[in-house]
Structure formats: structure tokens, C-alpha cells
Amino acid sequence: MMELIFALAIGILTASGVWLLLRPRTFQVIIGLSLLSYAVNLFIFGMGRLRIGAPPVLENTESIDPALYADPLPQALVLTAIVISFAMTALFLVVLLASRGLTGTDHVDGREDAQ
Amino acid sequence: MTGMLNHLVIVPILLPLISGAVMLLLAERRRVLKGAIGIASTFALLIVAIILMRQADMTPPGSGVTTYQLGNWPAPFGIVLVLDRLSALMLVLTSVLGIASLLYSLARWHRAGPRFHTIFQLQLMGLNGAFLTGDLFNLFVFFEVLLAASYGLVLHGDGIVRVRAGLSYIAINLTGSFLFLIGASLAYGVTGTLNMADLAARVPTLSAGDAALFAAAAAILGTAFLMKAGTWPLNFWLPTTYAAASAPAAAMFAIMSKLGIYVILRLWTLVFGPQAGPLAEFGSDWLLLGGMLTILFGTIGVLASQTLSRLAGCSVLISSGTLIAALGTGGGEVIGATLFYLVSSTLGIAALFLLVELVERIRDPGADVLAVTMEAYGEGDDEDGLADEIGIAIPATIATLGGSFVACTLLLAGLPPFSGFIAKFAMMAAMLKTDGTAVQASTWMLIGLLIVSGLATLIAMTRSGISSFWARMDDSIPRVRIIEMTPVLALLLLALGLTIAGGPAMRYMEATTQALQTPRGYITGVLSAEAAEGRSRP
User: Fold this and answer.
1) Of B46, B149, B154, B393, which sits most exposed with the smallest number of CB within 10 A?
2) Which residue range is the domain that position A12 belongs to?
């Protein structure tokens, strides 16, 4: 059940992200990229297998059963991915504002569609 | 190979990081000092890269690599840097392009926006790190470093065209990074490792179901790298962005699109070599097909280009497509010739990007975009105001520009006496050598495309050359400074040097190929390296 909900969450986030990414307004694009990054982060986390109540940090390294612990590596990867995608989104936001300022429109092409 | 020399492997990453960080502390108007630091750091990088190349060339092919354990934990638990012939070659190429672009930018471009030198050094750091790393996630991090720097470089100089191109460039690369992350984490989920050597060792032992998942991971990763390399249909952003970027930035981007090719070459030969069982040669048909379509798209693009900078952008596509398709044919000797082509076409394209801006000054002297943006930025009136007057315009400007343009044309079209000819000739010769079996139809098609794309480049470049150099010029000779012309000439001379020293260069490429085709050497070299003395266990 947990796996199903988890997979559905990733799927819905990705679908919404891709849809928004293909929209013509820059704000929609940035929200789409954010949603995609959430989906990707959840996916990386899921690659460490979903476990409840299993700590990722080992204690008493003499006699332990690794099966009782969660895989710490994906959690570290997620942390890195969050930081990087956050920074990139901030950078994208600046370019978006510059584009808005220079072109006077929030269309991704820098001009409105000819209607 | 002891003591300080051991630590030389990490210098290409640390040196630009440190010099870039130091330059952040300097005030924006101290450009002479910044330029001096940047040039010194890049020259030091070149020297280090050449030493590393010699060191990598001393090991017999296929018998191990130089590793550097960050944090002194042995692979696959710690993150390693791996130096072999291929990564050393790319390091040298990066620093050569770095020096050329940086020298060129000193004439005027480094004044066109803030923090140029820091961003440039970080770009070098990201490239070097990506070439050296032996870990998939570490590769992602270095990719992000170089991409973040390249966003800065694309936007360098400001202006509406650059911001518009930068917007789609950033969006597409962020999407590519997400694909990279999905692929890398899926590969980890299946194999339980991110170390490339360990990955290659574990792939043959996967169960059938896991192998299918791993193939999916490889396909997603491959899509991300092909996007960076500019494969059709993921390349519509490339000519626009490269044409919009300032000349020195675009010259650096010439190697950035080769990074995607490098990673495919590295991972593909390592993980999907003959030892990989059912997954051996996974996706080679797709590489061949994608590459051929890219050549076709690039060829049409070159013929249709109205401006020289767009033409240069489209020749990046031809070069990428040629490399990808040649990898797809997969033959042993083809890879050696492909590497030769990689070096020669990167030099040619970088020279062309630098040259384009100078040639365009003929068309409308004084009214170039830079002058406008510099005015808008309110620069050019402090200490560097003097430099403009000291700089000497080179004599016989048109003759030099025209000569370089002809050389660029010959190099990119693959005509003698430049190295492009040897590279293409060697590639076709290797493709046709099949030990008695008939040459496949797809190979014939690829050879046809290679010839046609060369012809199209020749036609398009000649056409632009005629309209630029043979047009009526009413006494408007463009001002070109020696410091702008030197990098172009140096890059072209290097390409000529590749022809003259074709034998030793080809021998190096063949040794590289041999090492790539015996991944066992790489795998055992990385995994059996012991941690250095003096590590205290926690």
C-alpha cells in the first residue's frame, strides 16, 4: 500500500511537472521544474527501498545486522539533489525576472503569440 | 610515482576553484590583476594536464589506471578520481581551449559583465572534475558545477538575445539534470553502487529482471548525455544558445558538448563491453541512428544558416553527430579515429567561434552588440580605458582574417592539409575494414553522410566567406587586436600540428582505444587500489 501511494505521488508530480513545463508562461515553467524536482527527489529516496522505523545510521559496529537499517546513501543523494535543484531554481528565477524586465512579457519566447 | 606527484591528479579541480574563489574577493575594477590570475591559473592547468597525460601514457594499455582516493577510502566505498589516457586527453584539450578563450576575452569581453573570470575558472573546474571522476553521482555534481558556470557565461554580456536564449538553455539543462538523477538513482537501486568500475563489474551478474531495469536506467542516463551532446531531436536549443553566447564563452562550449560524448564513450565501453553478457553493445543501433540524424540536421542547418555564428553552432551538431554515429558502429579502430576527430573538430569549432566575431566586425564595424551592452553596463571608462589605446591593431587584418577563415573551412570540411582530413579518412578506413565480411548498409550510409556533411560545410563556409571578404568594403577595415588574433591562429596551428605529428597522436589514440576496449584493466585498477598509509579508522 505504501509503495502504491508513493509511486502514485511520484507519477502525479511528474505528470503535472511535465505539463507545466510545456506551458507558455515562464512562471508555469518554473513551477513545473519545481514539481519535477520534488518527483525526482522522492524517486531517489525510493531507490533506497521504503522502510518504516529503520534508522539509516549504524551504531555498535561490532555485531550488527545491516538488514535492520535503512540504506543511508540515497538519503545523502537526495540532500545533495535538493540543494542543487534549489540553487538552480533560484538562478532560473533571476533569469526569468531579467527576461520579464527586458522583453516586457512573461512568455517563454520573449514575445506574445501573434493571434 | 610517489609523494607530491600522487596529488597532482586533484590539481585540475582544486586550482581553478581556488583561483576563482580568490578572484571573488577582488574588486570588480581590478581586471588586470584578475586577468593575470586567470591566465596564470589556466597555464598552470595546461602544464599539469600535460604532465598527467605523460604519466597516463606511461602505463601499458589495459593494465590499470591512476586513482586518487578522496577522503582516503578505497573504492567502491569512497569517491575516487580516475586518470587514464582518455581523461588526460580531455584535460589537455580543456586547458588549451581555456587559454585560447581567456586570452581572447582579455581584449574586451571580460569587461562586458561582472565576475567573468571567476565564472570562467569554475567552468574549467566543472569540466576537469567531470573528466576525472570515477563516480556517477560525483559526475552529476561536476555537471551541475559546469552548468551553473555556463549559465553565467551564456548570459555574460547581457542583452535581450542572450537572456532569451539563456532562459531556454537553463530550462532544458535542468530537465536534463533530472533525467540524469533518475538514471543514476535507478542504476544505484538495481546494482547498489555508484562507482563506475564497480558498476561495470556488477552488471554481468545481474538477474534478467534487474538487467532490464538497468537497461532502462542506462537509456535514461544516455538521453541526458545525448541531450548535452546535442543529438537530434534534443538539440534545437544548441545553435541558438551557442550563437547568442559571447565568442569566448561559445569557444568554451565547444568542449562542453563533447563532455556528453566523453561520458557516453566512457560508460558505454566500460559497462556495455563484450563482458556484459546479454547487455553487451546495448543501444548501439540508437547511437548510430541518432548520430546520423544529427549529422543530417546539422548539414541542413549549416546550409540554411543566415549568420556565421549560427553556422558555427550547426557545425557543432555535425561534429557531435559524427562522433555519436561513429561510436554506434562500435568497431575497435573506429574509436581511435573518432578520438582524433574529436580533438581536431573541437579545435576547429573553437577557432571558428572566436573568428566569427572578428569577421562580423567587417560587416558593421563599430556597431557591434558589445559596444552597446558595454555602454549600458556603464563600463569601459575606468582603468582599462587605457588598454584600448595601447592595443595595436594588427597589420594586414583582412589577409590574416581571410587566411584563418580558409583554414577553418578546410579543417571543418575535412580537407587536407588539416587534421580534419586525417580524422575523417581514418574513420572511413576503419569502418570499411571488416575482416572479409560485407560492409553493412548503415555503414555505407554513414560514410555517405560524412562526405555530404563535409561538402555542405564547404559550400556554406565558402558562401559566407565570399559575402564577408569579397564584398565591397568602403575603407572600413575592422580593428582587430593581436591578442584576439593570436588564440585563433594558435588553435589552427595546433590542428596543423596534429597533421604533422599525426603518427604519435594516432599512436596515443590507439593506445587509448585499446585501454577502453579492455575495461578489465580499468575495473581492477580502480577497485584494487589500496588506501594510502596513515588513515585512522573512526
Assistant:
1) B393
2) 2-52+70-103
**Which of B155, B171, B186 lies nearest to residue A29, judging by beta carbons?**
B171
Residue A77 lies in a domain: yes
Instruction: Specify if A22 maps to a domain.
Output: yes
CA angle B3, B4, B5 (to 5 degrees): 95
| Residue indicated by cell numbers 564563452 | B249
Residue A58 lies in a domain: no
Q: Using CB atoms, pick whichever of B181, B188, B194 lies closest to residue A40.
A: B181
Distance, in Å, from the CA atom of B135 to the CA atom of B287, rounded to the nearest integer, reads 23
Residue A13 maps to a domain: yes
pTM: 0.88
Residue ranges covered by each domain of chain B = 3-379+390-527
C-alpha cell at B143: 555537471
pLDDT of residue B371: 46
Residues of A in contact with B174 (CB under 8 A): 33, 37, 85, 88-89, 92
Q: What is the mean pLDDT of residues B511-521?
A: 83
CATH code of the domain in which A75 resides: 1.10.287
Per-residue pLDDT averaged across B373-402, rounded? 54
Per-residue pLDDT, B225: 92
In A, which residues are within 8 Å of B160 by CB distance?
102-103, 110
Lowest mean pLDDT among B189-198, B202-211, B381-390: B381-390
Q: By three-state DSSP, how is residue B449 classified?
A: helix
| Residue from B19, B38, B248, B13 nearest B139 by CA | B13
Omega of the bond leading into B417 within 30 degrees of 0 (cis): yes
Q: How many domains does chain A have?
A: 1
Residue A22, min C-alpha distance to chain B (Å): 11
Q: What is the model's pLDDT at position B395? A: 59
Enumerate chain A positions whose Cβ falls within 8 A of a Cβ in B: 21, 26, 29, 33, 36-37, 40, 43-44, 46-49, 73-74, 77, 80-81, 84-85, 87-89, 91-92, 95-96, 98-99, 102-103, 108-110
